[in-house]
Structures are given as structure tokens and as C-alpha cells.
Amino acid sequence: MPGIVIIGTQWGDEGKGKVVDLLAESAEMVVRFQGGNNAGHTIVRDGEEFKFHLIPSGILYPGRTCVIGNGVVVDPKVLIAELDGLRRRGVDVSALRLSANAHLIMPYHVMLDTAGEAKLGKLEIGTTKRGIGPCYADKSARLGIRVQDLLDPKILRKKIMAALEPKQQLLRPFARDPKLDLHAMTEEYLRYGHRLEPHIADTSRLCWEALDAGRTVLFEGAQAALLDLDHGTYPFVTSSNPIAGAACVGAGVGPTDIDEVWGVCKAYTTRVGAGPFPSELDDEVGAMIRDRGHEFGTTTGRERRCGWLDLVALRYATRLNRLSALAITKLDVLSGIDPLRIAVRYRGSEGAVFDDFPYHQSILHTASAEYEELPGWEEDVSEARSEDELPPEARDYLAAISDGTGVPINLVGVGPGREQVIATAAAGVRA
Ligand code: GDP
Ligand code: IMO
Ligand code: MG
């Protein structure tokens, strides 16, 4: 089965990095197709932790081609720092390929992101302030600078000049910042281009060649369905499309190249930044989950908001992505919480019941979740390696997720380590 998309089904940080790392063992290529260094994907190997922001989570396998696709927005300074950091740890990064068509995050994008949030004040989105939104905005406005522009000093300077001009007004508070000097910026980005040149490639073609040869290509999503620009909790979303359909656009492959879509889902829910979260727990259970699940952002270190698993939202993500499998992570974190609750419907402020994810923003902001209760379990499950080593209550909890979505669970995470995983019977040949 050559084309497999792996995406987040909630508000991010579901453990996509870990699932990609596991599947990458039998893949030829791992491709990031959207987002930028707002992502933080963690892999724990032999007790050693790796955090990836731009580089695909397959890089730890020697020789695995890792692609940053055209749909990603790339801060070259961050990418170079990530490459250098991995090299220092002895990781061979020579198989990284960077799309010539990917857009670059420029210093003014980061400044605009920060300024935009400050302007919104109490209405802020809580972005990662990495310049993601302004960079995608320039891409759509056809004022973007692309990776390939780094290879031509004249074109680069011209494009920066054109892009910078309309920003001067918006960035008045930063007017004297040397980072906004055209000459200095052009020189800085030419240096980055020089460093990145060996990695720059026609990455769509690389994907086609691997797929045509029947090799497995993993498409690694960043962020998640409910942060999707079109389908998420707008405007409290990111500026790209993290759903599976975007893998085709962001990597340059066709829909029929995709054979499977795996949705990664935490056994509970978390969210970083502002926006509606109907099953949020603002009590000691939420604090306990945050504490035990180490729910602090990989990228910004912010506290993650925690809550119960939300089946209404998960069913929505299931359909948006047409999931073929689920990977449930962090089941271990729920040990000792009894009873457990799963949100099965929302109730609007005027009493209306919503079995489906409501399209109207005002409803979502005021709706509260209604729950089904399930018995919890006391046992530590972090050593379980097969379903039958799980307590019956944990198996029932997983069955409730699978039955509630109609999607088989292929993997269950019981700890951050690479080996702390259960391949279920549903995973079939892959188990
Ligand atoms: P991503 O952005 O979706 O890749 O997820 P993050 O890496 O931001 O956050 C997931 C966190 O949970 C990381 O610290 C992982 O090491 C950790 N993790 C992943 N799977 C499991 C699991 O099954 N159990 C526990 N306890 N931690 C996990
Ligand atoms: P991974 O890939 C969790 C959130 C931010 C903010 C909103 C918009 O690790 O799951 P942005 O900087 O993208 O304009 O911020 O999206 N956000 C994430 N939350 N995990 C992520 O990535 C996220 N990337 C962005 O907190 O609410
Ligand atoms: Mg993350």
C-alpha cells in the first residue's frame, strides 16, 4: 500500500511524530506537506528525545528520503538550525530534500504575526508567532518568496523589495529594525540558500518515482483537523489545511496515489491557544491529565488545555479525512481516572442538541458537551504490548472510540517510547 497519509484528528499534538516514526521503518519516503515550524513532533528513541519542527519524522532512519514539500512554509534559519542540531547528534541528514516551490518565512512575517496578535488584544488567536499566517497570506497574494528564489541573487532582491514595500506601513513600530533592511535581508537569505542548495529538489517528482516503483510513501501531517483553515474552528485555526486532502496539493501527487489515511488521536483532548473546546476540563482532573501527560507545547512551551475525548469532533475529523485507521495515543495517561467520560453530543445554550459538529461559530463557542460515562482502570498499562494485556475497562474504552467512529484502531500508544505501542488485531498484516 504505497501512499499513506498520517494526520491529527484533534487540535494538534496527538503524537503524529511517534506514529510516523513507527511506520517509517517500512517506508521509503516521508513527506511533510503543510504547516511550518509551528509544528513540534516528538520522537523518543532509547530514552533519547528528538523534537522536529520542519524535518520529517523519518530522518532517524539512515537513508530514508525525507521531503519538505511545496505546501510547507519554511523558515530557513530554523531549518538550518534543525539540520545542524541533528548533525551534532550524529544523525545523517543528507537524504533531506526541500521543494524548490516551498515558500519562505521572512523576518517581516514573524514581525507581522506578533504585531497582529498584539493588535487583536483579548481576541488574539494564540498563534505560535512563527510567521505562519503572514507567510501563507503572501503566498496567496502572490508576493511570496520561494526556495528557488534563493538561488538567484537578482531575483531574490527584486522579490524581497516587492514584498517588503506593502509591509512598511503595517510594520511602522518596527521601522528601525535592521532585520527589515533590504540589503541585509537579501544577503542573509542568500547565505541560507548557499547552505540549503544541496537539499533543494523537484520533490513532486521524487514522490512520483517512489510511488510508481510501488514503494511506501508516508505523508506526515502537522497540526490537525480542527485547526484546518477551512474546516476547523475558524478563526482559531492555523493558516494551512492539515486534513488528508491537502497531502495531494502540498506534495504534488494525485488523490489516487493515496491508499490509506491514518488519524492520530489522543485518548483525551488537548488544545494550545485560544478558541472553543466544548469538552475542556477546568478542574483537578484536567490538571491531573496535564501533569501526567506532560501537556506543555513542544514548540512554545505553553500549557496545553486539557479535556475529555470528544466523539462529536472525532466523527467530524473521521469524515473530513475519510479515515481508514485510527492510532490512539496516550492511553497510559488515563490510568487511575475513574470514571472516564466521552463527549457524545453538544447542547447549545438554548437547549438544542447537536449530534454533529455544528457549522456555526456562535453555537460552537457556547455549546457544552454531554457525556457517556465509562469505568476507568487502576492498572499501569505502559508495559502492555498486546490488547489482551490491557485491563477490560481499557479495551472497552478503545471499543467505544472505534464503535463511535466506525474506524478500526490499528495502534495504541501506552507511553512516549518507540516500543511503547500495541499493534492491534485490526492492524492485520501490519501488526
Ligand atoms: P505531535 O505534534 O502530534 O507529533 O505530538 P507532540 O510530539 O507535540 O506531543 C505528543 C507528546 O506525547 C510527545 O511528548 C510524545 O513523546 C508523547 N507521546 C506520544 N505517544 C504517547 C503515548 O502513547 N503515551 C505517552 N505517555 N506519551 C506519548
Ligand atoms: P503539531 O504539528 C498544536 C495552534 C496555535 C494556535 C493556532 C494558530 O505539533 O500538532 P499558528 O502559529 O499556526 O498561526 O497558530 O494553531 N497550533 C498548534 N497547536 N500543535 C501544533 O502543531 C500547532 N500548530 C499551530 O497554538 O492556536
Ligand atoms: Mg506537536
How would you sum up this structure, described in words?
This protein is α/β, with parallel strands linked by helices and 431 residues long. The protein folds into 2 domains: 3-83 and 203-430, Adenylosuccinate Synthetase, Chain A, domain 3; 103-198, Orthogonal Bundle (Adenylosuccinate Synthetase, subunit A, domain 2), CATH 1.10.300.10. The protein is 31% helix and 19% strand. It contains 12 helices and 20 strands. The protein has helices at residues 16-24, 76-88, 107-120, 132-140, 153-170, 182-196, 203-212, 246-251, 284-292, 311-321, 361-366, 392-405, and strands at residues 3-8, 29-32, 41-45, 48-52, 65-68, 73-74, 96-99, 103-104, 200-201, 217-220, 260-266, 269-271, 305-307, 309-310, 325-329, 340-347, 353-354, 368-374, 409-413, 421-423. A hairpin with a 2-residue loop joins β3 and β4 (48-52). α3 packs across α4 (132-140) and α5 (153-170) crosses α6. The model has no long low-confidence stretch (mean pLDDT 95).
Beta-strand residue fraction: 15-25%
**Mind telling me which CATH architecture of the largest domain this is?**
Alpha-Beta Complex
Small ligands present: guanosine-5'-diphosphate, 6-O-phosphoryl inosine monophosphate, magnesium ion
In total, how many domains does the architecture comprise?
2
Task: Kindly report the name of the CATH homologous superfamily of the largest domain.
Answer: Adenylosuccinate Synthetase, subunit A, domain 3
Described by its quaternary structure, the protein is single chain
Number of strands: 20
Spatial strand order of the main sheet: 9-7-5-2-10-1-11-15-19-20
